Amino acid sequence: MHTLTHFRLCPFSRAARLALAEFAIEPTLVEERTWEWRPEFLALNPAGELPVLQIDDAAPICGIYAIAEYLGDTPLLDDADSDASIDPEDAGADHDPDDTTPINCKLFPGTPAERAEIRRLVDWFNGKFNREITQELLYERVYARMQHDRTATPDVDVLRAIATNLRYHMSYINHLADQRRWLGGDELSFADLAAAAQLSVVDYLGEVPWENYPIAKIWYARLKSRRSFRGLLADRMPGTLPAAHYADLDF
Amino acid sequence: MHTLTHFRLCPFSRAARLALAEFAIEPTLVEERTWEWRPEFLALNPAGELPVLQIDDAAPICGIYAIAEYLGDTPLLDDADSDASIDPEDAGADHDPDDTTPINCKLFPGTPAERAEIRRLVDWFNGKFNREITQELLYERVYARMQHDRTATPDVDVLRAIATNLRYHMSYINHLADQRRWLGGDELSFADLAAAAQLSVVDYLGEVPWENYPIAKIWYARLKSRRSFRGLLADRMPGTLPAAHYADLDF
User: Fold this and answer.
1) Distance of alpha carbon A169 from alpha carbon A137, whole angstroms
2) Is B62 in the A-facing interface, judged by CB distances under 8 Å?
3) Taking CB atoms and an 8 Å cutoff, what residues of chain A touch B66?
4) Which of A7, A55, A154, B187 keeps 20 to 30 A from A161, CA to CA?
5) DSSP state letter for A81
6) Is the keyword Transferase assigned to this protein (chains A, B) (predicted)?
């Protein structure tokens, strides 16, 4: 049995869920509020950060960097030996025959140079995009009320700065999606999943100005219609409902 | 010819320099002040972040995540084909016969699970340690004056918070170094290099309370005495001299 300790709107947790779903692995999800600093959680990951993946009884794999590279190292479904934790037939049984997208992807496909480009973009989204947009937006719109004061309202100046940053990032996604089949190159990769995970949080909160970035929108729609995305689209955060179009494949 | 665009006290640039030096690769170093937002630099790395590695005429490899994994993917010295960019004899000629440490290491040695543990720690140092200590300390002690106001003085409350954070991190390093031969396990790995790179910046600024963490000190002394560390120990930042013991192997 696999367990993913996560938080519903944590973008790194979402990236891990997408990656696992691409391998048709459905872990048991355990929600953690990192700001409560529970000793049991800190024993699992001393950094106190999400997500944490537990594969059977093995040591926990902590953080999205280690998890993504681990899945890249050991694509569990490709593993033909007897330790393979998923019966390929079971995984296949859940596969819609009309769904022409593969049920898994290599997270870091290509040559070392192509992999470096994918990782540059993973770093862009998990680092820069998260710092400049998702983390700030989550704090203003969700965490401030959960962690400090139920009556807290977002700081409009901060929201305005986030919106400015977001336009810059959307232009970049639009540009990449215009130049390439997927953000990191010809093949779907973890760069797409990391980017989509971040954007899915911003989209849940209704802040993505899709109409101005039509090519980015098409790229996101392709990801959103993948089987691996379904779990994320079903998420509902008590106290913070998603934007009306959040789960629509035709948005 | 290889080029590393870096900044002398940037911990990520230092981690890249250590990793390259472990492979006996000596790139041409080009210093960049990212806060000047030079268009030529942004053309090289649109994220505007350091370090950036250029291997011959290939596309730039941007950021410490992509660089470290690239070096893990393609250990250049292990590469026996004719593209190998370093003549092994040349590399050997620079090797001190009395120096029993290997001239290179695998950056992510071991099984996928062992590699996941190494990457957890890389994330700890490049993420958490950097955010809670190095980045803040560099701003207070170096960048505020370089970027904004030559007469700026550090905020003592911030310095006190950094010192508190540092004690916690030093305890963790001490604990890891007590349990294992190297931080990530039995073998030297990029976890050690990432940790040492961060600490080397804090040590340059004279802020590491070594006397209270004797096992961490022994671990750092072992790294510091490696050939790969020499470049870092020779660094001098105009306007900010290093602590007196900074370059001493016996500190």
Assistant:
1) 14
2) yes
3) 116-117, 119-120, 123
4) A7
5) S
6) yes
